[in-house]
Amino acid sequence: MSHTLSQQLQEDPQLIEGKKLILDALKKHQKSITGIRPAKSKFKADYESTIKRLEEIRAGGLIYPYLGSGFGKGPFVELEDGSVKYDFICGIGVYQFGHANPDIVEASIDGAIQDTLIQGHVQQNRNSLELSEQILGLANQGQHMFDHCFLTSSGVMAAENALKLTFNKNQPANRILAFKRCFAGRTIAFSHINDKAMTRAGLPDAFPVDHVPFFDPEDPEESTQRTLEAIKTKVEEYPDKHAGMIFELVQGEGGFYPGESNYFRKVMEFCKSKGIAVLVDEIQTFSRLKTPFAYQYFGLPDLIDMVWIGKASQVCATLFKSDWKPPAGLLGQTYTSATSTIEGAKQILKALSEKPFFGDSGKIERLSKFTQEKLAQFEAETGLINGPFGLGSMICFTPYNGDGVKVGSFLKRLFENGVIALSAGSNPTKCRFLLPYPVIEEDDIEAVLNIVFSTLKELA
Ligand SMILES: Cc1ncc(COP(=O)(O)O)c(C=O)c1O
User: Fold this and answer.
1) CA–CA separation, 7 vs 11, rounded Å?
2) Pocket lined around ligand 1, Cβ cut-off 6 Å
3) From atom 6 of ligand 1, which residue's Cα is the shortest distance away?
4) For the chain, which domains are there?
5) Tens of pLDDT along 372-397?
6) Scanning 102, 357, 373, 374, which has its CA 20 to 30 A from the CA of 340?
7) From the CA of 175, how far away is ligand 1's center (Å)?
8) Minimum CA distance residue for ligand 1 atom 7
């Protein structure tokens, strides 16, 4: 007999039958989705006025006229205008496991019948611990790295928590080092870490940030020296003032620029020699390369002090060793995350641990190669794009020589034609995909790229 009433409820045959009925209904209706389809003209007027109202209420235009109906299947999403689109950006990597994924729906029902909609700092349930253990399990695969995992509900809050630990331990250092082209989040503090002026327009400084150049694959030796020299200059200019350096091992928003193992190793070793914490932002890279974490891919576990994740994990987390433990009161929050989200995240972490996604013969590598080969072939045949670029399931290409306005128009037409992708970077601006690899196969990629290629030709 289960010892809590909660367990007795979860095991109640009525509840089990109820969940089965819900999932059967979901799967029955999902059979109606067999591919993309255009909007229905009878919904057009209502759809457009609803989008307009949403834009007014949010005080800003949407990137796409996207209003989800709340239904989908794998890489397909239904919009309120009745259209069905291929989603190859997944809310910038959030719905990597696809739309209306039955396993995640089932897990979130387990969360939905629990006592509270959302859990927080003061009152947490066992599933927060279970999720933390799962995340640490993936992070510590092969080599023990981290002792602690602090959950939170947004990527930038996980990043803020990492910086709080860093500044607190490395007092009185008050500066941060970061790379040019990096993106780090949208609090006032992180807007200054972003190398993107529009994200901090009119905002006051929080603490000083020194930006240094990133790796250049065309010139590995020179660019390594350039980065080291730039850091040394800043460290000489402000001795003992740098608390930490933030690394995005594959730059995401900046345009999918991967670094390289030796490069990171040299830069990180220099940071360590100066007592500068090595901080790795894996919000966008988590679960997208051949290994669960990018620091594992680049072979850097011995050099890293802290890592934070988000997006694909649904619940965000800061991972750190026991020597970075916070003093009481430094970290806290009303919300950890919604209970359904925590249960859904547990299901995602379980799939990431158990399914053959990672490794040289894993699904990420297989689909990545397939996509990149198709893009390279199109580049060779037509010259309409440059690329492909990126790593793992983070793949992009540059149309129109990276002209931001033209890439924007192309993406809008691509959306109308049934594929959702997004831009990344500026000068050049690229078109990027975050592949929903768990729920696609080669034929989906082929179908999406055919639409991409015909749209490029249509606009050429
Ligand atoms: C590398 C990186 N860091 C941090 C963030 C911020 O995450 P969130 O939007 O969940 O706060 C993002 C979001 O795009 C990101 O790509």
Assistant:
1) 6
2) 92, 154-156, 159, 183-185, 248, 252-253, 281, 283-284, 310
3) 185
4) 32-100+360-459 (3.90.1150.10), 112-354 (3.40.640.10)
5) 999 999 999 999 999 999 999 999 99
6) 357
7) 21
8) 155
Q: Give the integer Cα–Cα distance in Å for 259 and 275.
A: 22
CA distance 221 to 415: 41
| Distance in angstroms (rounded) separating the CA atoms of residues 373 and 391 | 13
| Ligand 1, atom nearest to 158 Cα | 11
Residue to mutate (ligand 1; options 92, 182, 284, 295; most atoms within 8 A of CB)? 284
- Can you give the pLDDT at residue 1? 60
Token pair, residue 134, equals: 């799962």
CA of 156 to the centre of ligand 1 (A): 6
Best of 95, 160, 183 for a ligand 1 pocket test (most atoms within 8 Å of beta carbon): 183
Ligand 1 centroid – CA 182 distance (Å): 10
**80 vs 65, 208, 319, 342, CA distance in Å?**
10, 45, 39, 28
Q: pLDDT digit string (tens) for 226-244?
A: 999 999 999 999 999 999 9
Count of CA atoms in the C-beta half-sphere (13 A) of 445? 23
Q: What stretches in the chain show pLDDT beneath 50?
A: none
249-272: string of b/e by CB count within 10 Å (b at 16+)?
bbbbbbbbbbbeeebbbebbebbb
Please name which of 315, 312, 310, 253 lies closest in space to residue 283, comparing C-alpha atoms: 310
Q: What is the Cα–Cα distance from 448 to 87, expressed in whole angstroms? A: 9
- Angstrom distance (rounded) from CA 23 to CA 278: 45
Does the pTM exceed 0.70? yes
Beta bridge partners of 242: 175
Q: How far is the CA of 283 from the centre of ligand 1 (A)?
A: 6
- Cα of 389 to ligand 1 centre, how many Å? 20
Contact 156, 187 (CB under 8 A): yes
Ligand 1 center from residue 382 Cα (angstroms): 35
Cα of 252 vs centre of ligand 1, distance in Å, is: 9
Q: For 53, list phi and psi in degrees, rounded to 5.
A: -65, -40
pLDDT computed for residue 2 by the predictor: 74
C-beta of residue 362 within 8 angstroms of C-beta of residue 368:
no
Helices (H), 140-182: 155-169
